[in-house]
């Protein structure tokens, strides 16, 4: 009886400890697997065959270890069965085996702890700004701006007065000339349009740097929004991306515009929400006028078999309308008008007989309800860095709100505030660097977005004229941090700190923040080029500022008086 009772008692603990050892080895193998805990600073080898070979060798080692453990467990089970007839000897052997297994288990746990600690600390903690991404560039950690220093305040002031202020002295006269010509051009366009069948063009709206007083690049460029409305009985119904719960990330910031007939719009009437009886009839929408689900749509400038407005159709219509309008008034002017760039259909260029030219952009837009948001068919460079998924996607522009915010903020800042001077200097440096190394993923819109965030975070007293060097340093540090984190939030979308006086639509304020640097997450080559170009710009900044402070190149000379008067 005693022999039969002691054998199972000795077998159970040994078997349990053996299985526990197997589990520990498996966990250790998983912890050591390079795909589960990769080194944060490791780079991806270029030879994929070497990776596969190492993974196969590692897998063979794990299989051999598993076979060895299985044989050991089988041997232990056989030994327990052989020891069952001799209870006293079996008990002593089991006690020694338990002691040995406990010692092995402690060693395995100690090895596991040491291995986890080694993988966490052998390479040192990663910099907070890098965020642990596997494709971060080496050497980005350290002091802000890589320890590069900008010129002092006296040098910056001298550079601003000699180069930037003088280069933008003609901005007011350029705006006045372009606005007068565009007024005449749009008036001719309206006179040629049929009000019953053609789109109705409204007055233009000036936006961007020329109307926010921070334009630096030559030639001076005016961007003008041209709102338009459909002919009766049609009207537009904008649909924001944030109104739908399932919107792809690459379509955030876009929307669609549905063209609806007045007699088909029942969303604001109770007849579209309530089932009327047979003896009841809506006086606004007759029974025969309701939109049928399978009905073919034949609305103006819409995509094929779709009720949504097509950007390509709109641009073709706009180009043809502008061409006919110019032919009507061309005899009054002593210059030629031509389309500028093929990739920007609304880009126009005035060509003077002297060889000078004056570019400007006319962008057809659609107002979003009664707000200052506008859907634009294209931009010279879209702020989000992406491209629309289809021709029915329209980019939502906050250009008018940005102009209002800068104007409202400037009233609260001290006289001669340096906020626009900081933006002009940063834009100047970026422009010169782009000419040296080519365009990158960083644009003027990103610089302006960074400035808007700082204006909202800083006190008004911090933007005194004497703080130009400190605020410029802070602006560039903000851009650097955003680049390293690959995150720069849109100033208005999802920003609950924007003053209510701006009058933003509630749907925009409640939306999720939009990351303008999201393309860098997917486009590693573009990200590397952008970061390298940014630090190269900082490195060249002192020499560039000193050179332009002494000598002003010809491309920054003012436009001739003749070019403005014509």
UniProtKB/TrEMBL annotation:
<dbReference type="Pfam" id="PF20266">
    <property type="entry name" value="Mab-21_C"/>
</dbReference>
<feature type="domain" description="Mab-21-like HhH/H2TH-like">
    <location>
        <begin position="440"/>
        <end position="493"/>
    </location>
</feature>
<keyword id="KW-0175">Coiled coil</keyword>
<dbReference type="InterPro" id="IPR024810">
    <property type="entry name" value="MAB21L/cGLR"/>
</dbReference>
<keyword id="KW-1133">Transmembrane helix</keyword>
<dbReference type="InterPro" id="IPR046906">
    <property type="entry name" value="Mab-21_HhH/H2TH-like"/>
</dbReference>
<keyword id="KW-1003">Cell membrane</keyword>
<dbReference type="InterPro" id="IPR026250">
    <property type="entry name" value="ITPRIP-like"/>
</dbReference>
<keyword id="KW-0732">Signal</keyword>
<protein>
    <recommendedName>
        <fullName>Inositol 1,4,5-trisphosphate receptor-interacting protein</fullName>
    </recommendedName>
</protein>
<comment type="function">
    <text>Enhances Ca(2+)-mediated inhibition of inositol 1,4,5-triphosphate receptor (ITPR) Ca(2+) release.</text>
</comment>
<keyword id="KW-0472">Membrane</keyword>
<keyword id="KW-0812">Transmembrane</keyword>
<keyword id="KW-0325">Glycoprotein</keyword>
<feature type="coiled-coil region">
    <location>
        <begin position="52"/>
        <end position="79"/>
    </location>
</feature>
<keyword id="KW-0675">Receptor</keyword>
<keyword id="KW-0539">Nucleus</keyword>
<comment type="similarity">
    <text>Belongs to the ITPRIP family.</text>
</comment>
